[in-house]
Specification:
Length: about 325
């Protein structure tokens, strides 16, 4: 089977110590990308020396530098503009893909070229607590294409989740969606995945093939803890979804109640803003209340108890249902 071409984009800022693991996991894949574009965003550690050494050893690596620190979204968008592949994988310098990730993802995309992206089950690891759970479990039993209509059905059942760190995106669809919109900050991965998915459908590989490390001082954690900043991000997202450009995806986001993932802040917003109340559906309310309850319980649950719960509550992929390694 001829696999589609892939560009991997890795933005880096002061993650030199993580880069050899992240890049090494890519270079060990059974299917190789067309190019690995690493862009340093003004690092103050030894990242540049590490990237230059990796590039000398592996011609597939292309090294670029921003003249000054521009932020992760600017850096990734620059990588998208530089990319030559039909598909792009937006990797983080501190995440890690597991064996088979690229080959299995590209195989299912080759079989279903109408899909806007592929994803696998995501392996989430909270470094500070030791909690470990899987997201995206239960969408399919075998590598499959899910139409936008099927995605809505799964979403209404609470079985749809696209782990952003596992998505391989069709570059043309990503550009059409606006690339990474800076105002969306930490929510931008979710926004592009669901806009593209609800437009073109998605491919699913039902195996945990990529690790997302949740670090205590990560960008994600900092923005979530700043309530005013997080509210501003959510307001910006709702404003975008109310624009004509995104009405096709917004209709399916509304039907499936997909905004529940943003918890209590999003629930308060859609309830208080007349322009956003169309998202306040019974499905959204039901899913939001349950999601908020789980987040509260997670704060007070010891890690070993939480990991037991994840195993028995469907947040761990069953090894009996995984595809052949």
């Amino acid at each position: 089977m001829n696999l589609p071409t892939l560009s991997i984009i890795i933005p880096n800022f002061d993650h030199g110590k993580h880069l050899p693991v992240a890049v090494g996991a890519i270079l060990k894949q059974s299917a190789q990308p067309l190019e690995v574009i690493i862009i340093d965003d003004g690092s103050t550690d030894d990242s540049v020396e590490i990237i230059q050494a990796l590039a000398r050893q592996h011609p597939v690596i292309q090294f670029h530098r921003n003249e000054k620190n521009q932020g992760v979204l600017f850096t990734v968008n620059r990588g998208i503009d530089l990319a030559h592949g039909e598909y792009v994988f937006l990797s983080s310098a501190d995440d890690e893909v597991l064996p088979g990730f690229l080959e299995k993802s590209l195989q299912v995309l080759a079989q279903h070229p109408k899909a806007g992206l592929s994803c696998t089950i995501g392996d989430w690891r909270e470094e500070a607590t030791g909690l470990n759970w899987h997201m995206g479990v239960g969408m399919a039993d075998t590598p499959s294409y899910l139409s936008p209509e099927r995605m809505v059905e799964l979403e209404r059942q609470g079985r749809l989740f696209i782990p952003g760190h596992t998505t391989i995106l069709k570059r043309a669809a990503l550009i059409e969606a606006g690339k990474l919109i800076p105002e969306l900050k930490l929510t931008v991965d979710w926004f592009i995945a669901y806009v593209i998915g609800y437009r073109y459908g998605i491919c699913v590989v039902p195996e945990p093939l990529a690790i997302f490390k949740i670090l205590p001082k990560s960008y994600y954690q900092r923005v979530r803890q700043d309530q005013a900043a997080y509210r501003e991000v959510l307001v910006g997202m709702l404003n975008l979804l109310n624009q004509p450009k995104y009405q096709d995806a917004a209709a399916r986001i509304r039907e499936g109640g997909s905004l529940y993932v943003f918890g209590w802040p999003m629930l308060k917003l859609v309830a208080s803003q007349p322009s956003d109340r169309s998202f306040l559906t019974p499905t959204f309310l039901r899913k939001s209340v349950w999601h908020c309850t789980k987040l509260i319980l997670k704060k007070f649950t010891p890690a070993f108890v939480g990991n037991i719960y994840f195993r028995f509550a469907g947040y761990r992929a069953s090894t009996s249902k995984l595809g052949t390694k």
